[in-house]
């Protein structure tokens, strides 16, 4: 009898340790992702952050139906797509880290983060503040929330979280390697 209860107790400890490791890794990944996201959105991946403050360009577009992000007379859909894509992991990582929260608080956090980033750009004149950015960022985050929920229907939460952590860590290492070594060689 004691062997069976001891085995159950050992399995319970292993599960608790595994859950703790997932929690630490996922929170760490979220923190690193947010730092990189801020570095990307506000400082355009510059090493010399003070040079961004010399940009002194302040513009504000609150009309989403105006021709946003014009490049050579044409709408620059590339920047809108990039904004959309870089916020997908935000929604995914929020779901990994905050399972108890419902959709609305996570949606609100994504929206507030995007609005705050745009306001900081406007206040410090370090970029163009555009409602289209807020919309595409938020929609990207929402897609991340939805993708996690849909994936969770077919894959258990624990397996899905491990896959996201592993893939996110590999992607993060690749992006940092690319930024540090490849882009440095080009420029």
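^ structure tokens above, recovered residues below v
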């Amino acid at each position: 009898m004691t062997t069976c209860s001891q085995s159950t107790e050992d399995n319970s400890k292993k599960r608790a340790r595994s859950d703790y490791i997932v929690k630490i890794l996922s929170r760490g990944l979220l923190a690193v992702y947010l730092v990189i996201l801020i570095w990307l959105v506000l400082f355009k991946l510059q090493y010399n952050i003070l040079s961004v403050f010399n940009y002194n360009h302040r513009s504000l577009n609150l009309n989403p139906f105006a021709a946003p992000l014009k490049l050579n007379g044409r709408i620059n859909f590339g920047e809108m797509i990039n904004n959309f894509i870089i916020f997908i992991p935000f929604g995914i990582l929020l779901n990994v880290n905050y399972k108890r929260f419902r959709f609305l608080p996570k949606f609100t956090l994504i929206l507030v983060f995007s609005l705050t980033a745009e306001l900081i750009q406007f206040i410090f004149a370090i970029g163009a503040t555009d409602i289209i950015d807020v919309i595409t960022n938020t929609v990207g985050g929402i897609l991340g929330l939805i993708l996690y929920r849909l994936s969770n229907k077919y894959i258990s939460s624990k397996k899905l979280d491990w896959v996201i952590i592993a893939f996110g860590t590999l992607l993060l290492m690749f992006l940092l390697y690319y930024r540090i070594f490849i882009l440095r060689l080009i420029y």
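Residues 68 and 82 are 14 Å apart (CA to CA).
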